[in-house]
Amino acid sequence: MNSIALVDCNNFYVSCERVFQPLLNGKPVVVLSNNDGCVVARSSEAKALGIKMGVPLFKIRDLVERHNIQVFSSNYCLYGDLSHRIMTSLQLFSPVVEIYSIDEAFLELTPNQSNTNYGEEIRRCLKQWVGIPVSIGIAPTKVLAKVATDVAKQSGAGTFCLDKAEAADTILATMPIADIWGIGRRLEKWFTTRGVSTALQFKQANPELIRKKMGVVGQRLLLELQGISCLPLELIPNPKQETCVSRSFAQAVTTLDELQTAIAFFVSRAAEKLRRQQQTPAVMIIFARTSFFIEQPISISQTIALPTPTHYTPELLKLAQTSLKQIFRPHHPYKKAGVIMTGLQSERIVQGDLFEQPRDTERQQRLMLTVDQLNQKFGRETLGFGIFGQQQDWRMKSDLRSPRFTTAWDDLPEVKAGFY
């Protein structure tokens, strides 16, 4: 019988920073959210100093200075590229791989591979090939593999194989119900008031009680904890139902021109994502809002039904700019804006408009493909649209971002060789 392995990158954002800056090893490191606001990743050393996930940077300034904590802005280009290298490497160890998130993947292992030695081989190769340390849990089901990975992380073992029911029960008996994958804090109170406070008690609970509260999702979760696999690996991700690109502004935006520039940038980025996903939207929503904490907060939005689903950036920009002029309210300090593309469908589905001039769709696709390829090769925003402008004070703050070591020519690390 095959097993499931969950490969989970350790402190992923921090580990990415350390790949090209080995002097960070052994030092406390934190990575910040958009606009350098809150802590979203911590090294083990930073955790030991009591830094909590999500804490605002200004609240730990003294701690940062006192312990010389290394602080970085999020470097999504670097993280995304190293994640891709990890996921590509994992396919050499199993033909069945489900990419669960940027730093997690499930693998299906044969009986001969379902052991600690094979997990350690995966860990060794990933560290050598990509430079990222990982923890691996191996078990008969996805949910138990998640439990095994948590044990591997907390114990420092690196790899943990949970293949015996007795061993699983021992671990589940000390595991709070909120830590079960799929339960969380939301359902913890409901179960605790009914005498179910540990993962083992959940596993042994009346199936009708669980089905009543959680439906078929809860029933599958129960079976997974009992070692019965009913959550197959998803090799082909479900098509996305919508794509959103939004940002908080480093400085408040008060003029229509500034907001148009920001919205145009978000529309362009969303269209690029859709082309990569090979999808087109039927509806585009643009929105902007002030801070929630001012005296009279406001928000504006407009839903635009596209005449024909398209991911052609110039057309989407034109529609967005026209709509924004209609809804813009001057003299308000806008702090966040964005665009949502929804009603997504395959780009291969083309439904024309009887009363619209025929489009040169192939020409549009060739043009956008050229733009995307050039931006990918020479760096994002190498080619853009005039409406983006030169001065973009609203752009997300990332004063502490490390170089894009693997995706920008200008940021490639230099190797200096000496002769002796």
UniProtKB/TrEMBL annotation:
GO terms for molecular function: damaged DNA binding; DNA-directed DNA polymerase activity. It holds the Pfam family IMS_HHH. Residues 4-184 form the UmuC domain. InterPro entries: DNA/RNA_pol_sf (IPR043502), DNA_pol_Y-fam_little_finger (IPR017961), DNA_polymerase-Y (IPR050116), DUF4113 (IPR025188), PolY_HhH_motif (IPR024728), Rev_trsase/Diguanyl_cyclase (IPR043128), UmuC (IPR001126). It comes from the Bacteria. GO terms for biological process: DNA repair; error-prone translesion synthesis; SOS response. Keywords: DNA damage, DNA repair, Plasmid, SOS mutagenesis, SOS response. SUPFAM superfamilies: DNA/RNA polymerases (SSF56672). Belongs to the DNA polymerase type-Y family. This is Sll5122 protein.
